[in-house]
Amino acid sequence: MIGTSDATTQLAAITARSRQALPIGRAERLDRIERARQLMAGQGADALIVGAGASLAYFTGIRWSMIERIVAMVLIRDRPPVIICPAFEEGSLSAEIAVPAEARFWQEEDSPYALIAGLLAEAGVRTVAVDPALPFGMADAIQQAAPGVRISSAATVIDGCRMLKSPAELAIIREAMSMTLEVQERASRILRPGIRASEVRRFVESAHRAIGSDGTTFCIVQFGASTAFPHGLPQDDVLAEGDVVLVDTGCLLEGYNSDLTRSYVFGAPDPLQRQVWDIEREAQLAVFQAARPGAPCSALDDAARAVLQAHGMGPDYRLPGLPHRTGHGVGMTIHEAPYLVRGNAMPLAPGMCMSNEPMIVVPGRFGIRLEDHFHITETGAAWFTEPSPSLDRPFA
Q1: What three-state secondary structure class fits 73?
Q2: Helix (H, G, I), strand (E, B), or coil: what is residue 45?
């Protein structure tokens, strides 16, 4: 089906999907806050500070981006959450917040950091775990305003919550992945000699909207020699017969991300392209088979590299071979914990979701990346999307 249609036809053929996965509800967000309290106690933190961004949305439903004005949740162990917010945003905050919380507002001439310090002092807080995504300048300003408070990283608290997806989260991610897989297949159909990568990107953006997602979050389209660079080159590739095609894209749905890569050849594959594609597929399956509760994240990276080394590639990060980690977590951000990388002894646990993308790079020639995601179950792992069956049938 590769190269058998055009963008207009493929967009017209898309049926907008009725969303099956439900948005995250209030009860689940309250459970997340309680889980955060438990993890805070485990690391001896009296309070947790989470800034605007994915983690604030995770706990409160407030989907605001980080800007220079601090917006944050201050969670003290035995109190409801407190939202620190500019006063002129009060109406927007009321419309957005999805959990019961106290709000404390600051005017433009006020110091929000003094407001936070006063809240900490009022509650007798001595140790604070701070969102690692909070800009250093903001964290430093909190420390300057509250010099008697000891600040540490909240990575174990936030990751300890966000890494373990609930059934509702898994359902949203599964639906988002399914949308992107259809968009990927339709994108392969519009290819033709001379088409530019930018035209394919525009199609993907339109298709993700047409299918009912909240839009494309990123889109990498590479042809030929550019595919040997994992994230491409600053150029608008032009497709030719015999080129490897690599499309890596994702969409957003209810605050969660999809992320899939497909690699195939436009025209007849040569023997080396076919050989490398088959090795990549073998490595991807080895990673999946190694995924089970209790296995260290590093074991999955080891599984991919063992396949490549058996075929004379590598070792380690040497090329031809795998130049980066084997995978990453996915959820409210495209890359998040846990990471499938050498040295990461974190044990896998049910509810963890991650990519499986042991890319193979042949320098100066091409690269092959097959990326699907799976989640850990009680007994092993389950795919969100079915991997490519073969180079001749890249879409199941």
Answers
A1: strand
A2: coil
User: Alpha-carbon distance 367 to 362, whole Å?
Assistant: 6
Asked if 76 and 204 sit in the same domain, the reply is: no
Burial grade of 88 (CB within 10 A; 0-12, 13-18, 19 or more) = exposed
Q: Judge whether residue 83 has pLDDT over 90.
A: yes
**Is residue 144 a contact partner of residue 113, using CB atoms and an 8 Å limit?**
yes
Rounded to 5 degrees, what are φ and ψ at 84?
Answer: -95, 125
**Which of 113, 141, 162 corresponds to the end of one domain?**
162
Q: Does residue 266 register a pLDDT over 90? A: yes
Domain count, the chain: 2
d(CA 220, CA 249): 6
**CA 300/CA 291 separation, integer angstroms:** 7
User: Using CA atoms, how far apart are residues 247 and 370, in angstroms rounded to an integer?
Assistant: 10
Domain that holds residue 156: 26-162
Of 134, 162, 190, which residue sits at a domain end?
162
**376-382 average pLDDT score:** 98
Q: pLDDT tens for residues 6-40?
A: 999 999 999 999 999 999 999 999 999 999 999 99
Assess whether pLDDT exceeds 90 at residue 141: yes
Residues 120 and 180 in one domain: no
Find, among 241, 145, 249, the residue nearest to 201 by Cα.
249
Binning the chain into helix, strand and coil, the percentages to the nearest 5 are 35, 20, 40
